[in-house]
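pasting for ref
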Amino acid sequence: MAESDGGEADPGAGRRAAGGDGASPDPPRPQRPHLTKSRTISVSSPSAAAASSVERLRGGGRESLLASRSTTAPLPPVDALAPRRLTVAVAVDDPSHASPPNGGVLDRDWCYPSFLGPHVSRPRAPRQQQQTPPAAGRRNPSSLAPPRRAPLSQREEEKRLASVVKLPPLLGERRPLSPLPPPQPRARRFDLSPYYLLLLLVVTVTSSALAFWQWMKVLGLQEKIRSCGAANAADSEEETLLVSDPGSGFVSSANWNFVPMLALVIPVFLFKYGDQLRWNRADSVRTRGTEEEVPLEKRIAYKVDVFFSGHPYAKLLALLLATVILIASGGIALFAVSGSGFLEALWLSWTFVADSGNHADQVGLGPRIVSVSISSGGMLVFATMLGLVSDAISEKVDSWRKGRSEVIETNHILILGWSDKLGSLLKQLAIANKSIGGGVVVVLAERDKEEMEMDIGKLGFDFMGTSVICRSGSPLILADLKKVSVSKARAIIVLASDENADQSDARALRVVLSLTGVKEGLRGHIVVEMSDLDNEPLVKLVGGELIETVVAHDVIGRLMIQCALQPGLAQIWEDILGFENAEFYIKRWPELDGMRFGDVLISFPDAVPCGVKLASKGGKILMNPADDYVLREGDEVLVIAEDDDTYAPAPLPEVHKGFLPNVQIPPKFPEKILFCGWRRDIHDMIMVLEAFLAPGSELWMFNEVPEKEREKKLTDGGMDIFGLTNIKLVHKEGNAVIRRHLESLPLETFDSILILADESVEDSIVQSDSRSLATLLLIRDVQSKRLLSEEVKSPLRQNGFSHSSWIREMQQASDKSIIISEILDSRTRNLVSVSKISDYVLSNELVSMALAMVAEDKQINRVLEELFAEEGNEMCIRSAEFYLYEQEELSFLDIMVRARERDEIVIGYRLAQTDEAIINPEEKSEIRKWSLDDVFVVIANGD
């Protein structure tokens, strides 16, 4: 067994106890550490006798009473421990020290904390007991033991001491300590559910009502018996009444008064019994004091709170129960204080609850007090009911107002998210649905419904029959997506957020994952607005064939380059992408099967065919096919028309082809282009310029990004700076809104200047447009002052400053170079267009047009991708000298046929004296006189 003090044991004590060799002297006892000693019961020789009796009872007739070494008793089982009671390990030493002189504390009784568990003894070699007689001069513990036969009273004392003090086993019975048994699992707490409380309450009310009813009925029977006892003839009638009335048994019994009392006591007894049962079960599995006792009031309040929180109709049920209790208790009270029947009393109680003015007719003090009490309770009940009804109505109206109700629509367009492009997008969708009388557009965004409706109302646009429904919610939550009938929408548009490009694309990816997780599936396709071209493959990988992406930055960047190389192309793209004029449509015409594309080109009086969707190649769109291509079964025709129901094929018209002028397209010359600002996709724009420009061209990059950092960003974007063959990069560092920085540049020598929405302010439309507009005005002013022409040095400048002269000078400067400004807000468009000092690009509006067009027909995205690409077919502006002679009279169909000799498709024109181009003219057969200053819009192969 383990030593209680953890120190060295006395080896001589073991020999003395075992009757060892008496010749060996007693070795000195080692010094004990100064530890806190346990309190030990100190006894005299009778106590030693008692210890001997206990030993005899436990170990049988052994010679040795105790082991000479100090031991610690094993811990009792956990189940035997009383709650909140410390277990004291008592060490028993050599009997020679049974009566120490230090007040009953043995020198070997060292304390070991019981909460640390059993003390692990050191391994020692087992000792064998020897039966040799004790040596002279050595103390024999057996000689000090009392006689084995102790008196009966002493045995009782020994048993009492043995029940308190656990003596260690003998040395021969020594065995390793067993580990503590695992703690018993705590029994499940017995809780009174709210249903049980409700049942007790109902039983209480019912028992009380029954008790009072029986009591009043017995009183009535007694009164009848007393009234009938005077007449002898009433004896037979009394017997008949007692026999026929169920309450006669109570009258004849002397213990009928205990029945109401018993009915009232039963519910209380049940409640108390259930509560006591709960605590009995809890006390049987826990240690005393480990759990704080919760008062009954708090437990009842907690259960009521849980009941009201977990059940939606708890308030209504509580109000109904309170009303029933009020009517029942009021009816019993009225029945007790008035002479009316019980049912009549219940009816009166209901009338008092329903109408508080009915109690005015009551006579007598008792009925009046009871009626006033019932009426007061009725007013409280009805006030509570009105509050609940008002809250329910307000909650429902608030749910409608905040956009929490479900949208029950089919074949609608769903827009997920909110951005500054939403206004233009709604406008284009409304125009697209005008021909069918309007449609339904549902907007789901993480904004308040009232704010969304207010912002849409500020647009001041007539939606022409299209309904716009706003709902507040998150596109990442399936419940919110189901609320807007996402599975029944014909198209879903995911707008980019106002965050930076990476965060916006990450959010778009999470929205696509949510859409693919809709169990009901999706009927329509998904159009996702992306901010970075590098993130497009990942979104397409997740969405699969349902996904159509429109990369806003890439589209605008490519369009800006095309507009810089061909002035006026921005207005052409606005006409084609928007639904206000002509746009792309794809449709199947079986009557055109077997016809050459050259004949199909002039078969539509109200449309311009420009491609074919090939059924044999899985729906691939072939732009600008050859004239000898024959349409096959299943092929569809791509046209530019006013609307999808405004064109149809007609018989072939008569065409006068004539002679095509022999004018060759001039070769490309090196150009000098300036980029003001830095975009995150500027490396893609540089690669597009590399494909379009002639060798020897220069690209000046003027922004605030350090030169070393620029090269690192371009390299990280995947561009090989040293692999550029057509253009040369020239880096200049400066701020585009500071005049002295701009004056350091040769602004008058650039062929084209592109003012980009800088990456540092692209999150704020107002700041971006303000910066672009300020840069535009500063560049034009510097250019106008550097021009040495006579028109700039006009007398108007000498007579003083004139606003019109300043505008005229900048317009003249615009004739020398082209400035393309990236404008994000449509309100800034008017400021630029009025002055006519710059060709412009309206980014948000063009992106919204592209999103609306792809939402109406996902196939159009293939057309836009090819037209925006640096290879393949592109949209160009050609001079009239390529197709006609000066003052030649031709129809538009004649010019279309002539252009086919150059493998080009003419889709529109712009006259010299007008500022706007006409796409898909109405009277294509009308003959008119053309000028060489006119220009034509064509789709040509850029190779």
